[in-house]
Amino acid sequence: MIFSFSLYFGLTIILALVLQARAVPHPVAKRSNSDLSLTAQLRLADTAIERYKLLPNDSDFVFNFTDIEQIPVATSQNWPALVDVGAAISMSQLPACSMSFLHLHPRATELFALNSGHILSEMVPQAGVLDSNNSQRVIRTNLRPGQVTIYPAGSFHTQVNPDCEPANFTAAFTSDEFAVSLVAEQLFSLSDGVIARTFGQSITGDDIEKIRKAIPSDMAIKVEECLTKCGMAKR
């Protein structure tokens, strides 16, 4: 009996020592970040002080839209200084007689400010937001220079330039990686059966493929009535 108790007591002490050894914090081995992009290094930085060290030049805090050859949007991907700021910005224009794709931003609210020109804006809030007729509410705004509208995160929206001159705008986003979802293109990427059932079988078979092929590939869709008014060619 004494032997059994001693053995039990000894095993208890050994187990306690093992658990204590496991509980002792071990220094975290630092890995090299040299193979990571600057944006990734900034995201992994422990403090804001370390992030500033990764951006040693004053020019790191300036973004030049005049040097952008592609879509003029500043995000953390092409302007690392935005990491952990929670914002992004775009300065661009909607060409004459054009409409932007119906789209949404899944991770950010957008503030859309018109600098020059004329924009007709439409935005669909979330389901359940109804108008006086108990139908889905659509918020329509007629923007002039100096005016701003808001597109909450996840809301469908589009802008139309109904005039013969380009409309210049600035758009700010509440995320440094806000993303864009194109409603028509992504909806019709689903299988035919899903699309047919979604539209109550009013679109089926060859009609679905016909619509897929008809969806414009350009972000700015031409507005036929405006082209006629302005005497402009479609292409």
Automatic annotation (TrEMBL):
Belongs to the germin family. Residues 63-209 form the Cupin type-1 domain. The keyword Metal-binding applies. This is RmlC-like cupin. The keyword Metal-binding applies. It comes from Aspergillus eucalypticola (strain CBS 122712 / IBT 29274). Residues 1-23 form the signal peptide. GO terms for molecular function: manganese ion binding. It holds the Pfam family Cupin_1. Keywords: Manganese, Metal-binding, Secreted, Signal. GO terms for cellular component: extracellular region. It is found in: Secreted. Its main location: secreted.
